[in-house]
Amino acid sequence: MKKKWAALAMITFFTVPFMGGCFGGGDKTTESDTQQAATTATAGADEPGHVTEEDGVRKTVVYVDNDFNESGETGPFEFTIRSVRMETVSASTDLAAATYGIEKGEEAALLTLNLSAKNNGYESLNFYISQATLTTESGETVEPRSLISKYIEGHFGAGQVKEGNNIYVFKTTTADDINKLTMKIGAPKDGDFKPVGDEVEFEFSLKK
User: Which residue of 23, 57, 104, 195 has the lowest C-beta tally within 10 Å?
Assistant: First the structure.
């Protein structure tokens, strides 16, 4: 009888880990799987025609370039347009329309620029890239929509780098018709509000 129980114990000892490997490991999600799923989701969100609807706002992707990386400089500052995102936008509620500065039910062009700026000087200076205006080839000039932009504070310490998003809403130029733009930024200034560079007039083209 003792031999029989010993045999059963040995069978159980070897069988349980094996079954655990068969049934327990099949549902595990690896870190690689999670990262791949996140990358796929991000890529899909950048595809032309991708639509999102949230809080009364409908956006449709027209063009995305996450490696735009066009740069300019003025005085001790250098600045870069790191990425560009063009969408159409419409609002179905009064609040959404007011947030984007558009009429409810009408479609507008929405341009998001991810920007960075660096003070290469040896003293604290001011450069207000968050106030940069854009002008289309047709002559429409717009300012960043501060309610939906990610503000870049204008005071830069020596060697400091800052980044954020300027979001622009074009009401008279369609997204398909926006190809070449002129960015204007006020000249950087020192602590006494004296210019330490020139006013920026930077032309760039969307690489559609």
Answer: 23
Q: Which two tokens stand for residue 205?
A: 């083209």
Query: How does residue 32 score in pLDDT terms, banded at 50, 70 and 90?
Result: low
Res 24 pLDDT > 60: no
Q: What is the mean pLDDT of residues 98-124?
A: 97
> Mind listing the domains of the chain with CATH numbers?
51-205 (2.60.40.4170)
CB 166 within 8 A of CB 115: yes
- Predicted TM-score of the model (pTM): 0.80
Backbone angles phi, psi at 23, to 5 degrees: -100, -30
SS (H, E, C) the chain: CHHHHHHHHHHHHHHHHHHHHHHCHHHCCCHHHHHHHHHHHHHHHCCCCCEEEECCEEEEEEEEECCCCEEEEECCEEEEEEEEEEEEEEECCHHHHHHHCCCCCCEEEEEEEEEEEEECCCCCEECCHHHCEEEECCCCEECCCCCCCECCCCEECCCCEEEEEEEEEECCCCHHHCCEEEEEECCCECCCCCECCCCEEEEEECCC
Distance CA 165, CA 182 (A): 17
Mean pLDDT, rounded, of the chain: 87
